[in-house]
Amino acid sequence: MTIRLWMPKGQAMIAKTKPLAANDVASRLRDGIRMGRYVPGQRLVEADIIADTGATRSRVREALQRLATEGLVTIEEFRGASVKKLTLDEVRQIYRARMALEGLAAAEFATADKPDLKARLQAIQTEMDSGESTGDHEQFGRLNTAWHRLIIEGAGNDYVRAFLATLTVPIYRLLFSTFYNAQRIDAANADHRLITAAIVEGRAEDAERFMRAHVEQGFHSLSTIHSHFGN
User: What are the transmembrane regions (predicted)?
Assistant: First the structure.
């Protein structure tokens, strides 16, 4: 952010850059982790972050502490900060929490009187069905993200939304990695069709049961990718 300080007439205008706040630094780093710019195990060097953001050292340290509290960063004495590398058991715990929360979201969306959002969900489902056999794994991954987000929006539960946002950041890139397999796309979209139909038709119990099974299957698919996990 640049603030321009105007001097009295006849003097040059001076541009002064305001350092980023700790919250802004944390957001940049969080987005970088989510999008894979920073990979698990990578060191987060304070001097590099300061050069990139213009933030002060104290604000960078505060930002790293926030991310450590969120479980995204590990801070070790004498070694500094690095992107946390999740163990398979930690990923299992994340998925078990997702099963409960996304199952609840699917049930609440099913009972909600939100025909416009349900129509949007069906439209995304139709687009996924049309692209299922195209081999465009990136597009399917994006549609999958939009589908899950819309279900969370449709539930209208701010606490579920907040908790799931925290849970999803550490595994965001891993979620995409499971879709580089045609069989996984077929299986995932078969689940999507069941869940979409249950939500649109107002069958809350089925929506919750199908979603829980879908998230659990996602973990089983992900757990085969051993290279992503620490010991």
Answer: none
Residues 6 or more apart whose Cβ sits within 8 Å of residue 118: 109, 154, 199, 200
Contacts of 191 (CB under 8 A, 6+ apart): 210, 213, 214, 217
Query: Against a cut of 0.85, is the pTM above it?
Result: no
Amino acid at 216: E
**Which domains, and CATH codes, for the chain?**
2-6+15-83 (1.10.10.10), 88-228 (1.20.120.530)
Position 57: which residue type? R
DSSP state of 170: G
Give the model confidence (pLDDT) of 14-66 as tens digits.
444 567 898 999 989 988 887 778 888 899 999 999 998 889 999 999 999 99
List of long-range contacts for 133-137, beta carbons under 8 Å, 24+ apart = 135/182, 137/179, 137/180, 137/185
Tally helices (H) and strands (E) across the chain: 10, 5
**Which residues make beta-bridge pairs with 16?**
3
Q: Is the separation of the CB atoms in 55 and 26 below 8 Å?
A: no
